[in-house]
Structure formats: C-alpha cells, structure tokens
Known about the structure:
Low-confidence stretches: none
Strand content: 5-15%
Strand order of the largest sheet: 1-2-4-3
Number of helices: 5
Shape: globular
Largest sheet: 4 strands, antiparallel
Structural class: alpha+beta
Amino acid sequence: MSRPPGRKQENHKISRELFVLTYGALVAQLCKDYEKDEDVNTCLDRMGYGIGIRLIDDFLARSAVKKCRSYSETADMIAQVAFKMYLGVTPSVSCSSAAGNEFSLILDKNPLVDFVEELPAERASLCYCNLLCGVIRGALEMVHLAAEVTFLQDRLKGDAVTEIGITFLRKAEDRKHKRKK
C-alpha cells in the first residue's frame, strides 16, 4: 500500500503547528514559573542551546551541505537552508559590519508567533522567541563558531520585522589551523 503523494507535506505542516502551539504553552508556563522576564529569556536561550547542539547533527545529515568558507556563507546557510528546513521560512540576510562578522536575519513572518497577537504589558521585556537565539548559538558552537545571537527587533514588540543579530566572535583568520608536521 502506498502513501498519497501529498501526505508527507501535510504531516510536516501539522508537526510545525503542533510545535508552535506547544512552544506557546511552554513560554506561558515559564512565565508562571519565573517572575522576571530576564529569567524566562535566559531559560529559553538555555533550552534553545541544548536543542541547537543536537539539531546540528540532523541538519548536516539531512542537508548534505559543504563546509562554509566565510561568515557570510554561514549566515546564508542558516537563513536559506536551516530556517527553511525547520521552520518553513527563509529570512533575508544582511551584513551589518565592515569587518564582515555581524549579520542580521530578517524574518517577515515568524512561524513561532502564528498564534500570538501581542505580549502582555507586564511582559514587555520578554523575548518570546529567544529559543531561536539559543538554537543558532548552540548549533554554531558545535561547528566551532563562537557567536553572540540576540533579538534586535521583534514584531511582538511593535517593530516592523523580526530581526535576529548574529555576531561571530572570532576573526576569520583566527579560525585557520596550521598543520604541524
């Protein structure tokens, strides 16, 4: 017995919707457990980091991508392949530094907030999607790229777009390893 051709796509979409709803419930529970938004943000980042260090193996196996040669290639790979693969969206990428180590991922549509209209007034400093920052940071660290990942803009806070900033912490020449013979 064979599967209908469109079934796999439907399961993926259902899984994404289930993830988004479950994520909302998780954030709501964390808000009950912690009084301060900073504590919730830290917890979401830590959880994301744990996911990222495991998710990179799945990403590398499923995507069969080659090694990135520059920070801009890495940022493009995150946006065009990883976000598309796991969240079904493709953010635009912009370089925001002359040194070429700071990038912004700009999401016109953030699937994690599909069922969220706005943050409560008492949760103004909550970074609802901070899990994404941790995922990116964890995955990058597992491929030996130290990075600082933060939200720069958030639609839930009234900004026009959702923007994630990635700052690679080492210069490109620091990454080159010389072989000792």
